[in-house]
């Protein structure tokens, strides 16, 4: 915005309210699918803070004795490598 004397003035936009966390809007979505061009990715859980994606959580079947935290990490890491969808690029 330009003030009456020609100076450029602005307000600061705060994306996260650290002083009053209750003012923030949190959303966790199960099986969130991001589609862009020919690429489609589905996160087990995608966490948004004030509309911004901040975390992807990879879940494993608790009944699968062979499922490990290491497997979840590698599956998530492999998804991010070379991924072109906006959500995954944002979180990488």
Summarize the structure in words:
The chain starts with 25 loop residues before the first strand and ends with a helix. It has a three-stranded antiparallel sheet with strand order 1-2-3. It has one domain (25-91). The radius of gyration is 19 Å and the shape is elongated. The chain has two helices and three strands; from the N terminus they run βββαα. The chain has 92 residues and is an alpha+beta fold. It has helices at residues 69-80, 86-91, and strands spanning 26-36, 39-49, 52-57. The longest helix is centred in the last third of the chain and has 12 residues, at 69-80. The mean pLDDT is 79.
In terms of topology, how is this protein built?
Blueprint: E1 26-36, E2 39-49, E3 52-57, H1 69-80, H2 86-91
Antiparallel strand pairs: 1-2, 2-3
Domain Restriction endonuclease type I HsdR N-terminal: 9-80
Keywords: ATP-binding, DNA-binding, Endonuclease, Hydrolase, Nuclease, Nucleotide-binding, Restriction system
Family: Belongs to the HsdR family.
Strand order of the largest sheet: 1-2-3
Strand content bin: 25-35%
Order of helices and strands: EEEHH
Distance between the termini: 33 Å
User: Helix share of residues?
Assistant: 10-25%
Question: Uncertain runs with pLDDT below 50, 5 residues or more?
Answer: none
Shape annotation:
elongated
- Major beta sheet summary: 3 strands, antiparallel
Structural class: alpha+beta
Q: How would you describe the oligomerization state of the chains in this entry?
A: single chain
Query: What is the mean predicted local confidence, pLDDT?
Result: 79
Give the number of helices. Answer: 2
| Rg over CA atoms | 19 Å
Number of strands: 3
Q: What is the count of structural domains?
A: 1
């Amino acid at each position: 915005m330009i003030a009456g004397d020609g100076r450029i003035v602005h307000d600061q936009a705060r994306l996260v309210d650290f002083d009053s966390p209750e003012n923030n809007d949190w959303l966790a979505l199960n099986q969130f699918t991001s589609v862009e061009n020919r690429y489609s990715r589905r996160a087990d859980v995608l966490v948004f803070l004030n509309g911004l994606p901040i975390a992807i959580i990879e879940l494993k079947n608790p009944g699968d004795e062979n499922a490990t935290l290491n497997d979840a990490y590698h599956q998530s890491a492999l998804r991010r490598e070379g991924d072109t969808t906006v959500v995954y690029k944002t979180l990488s």
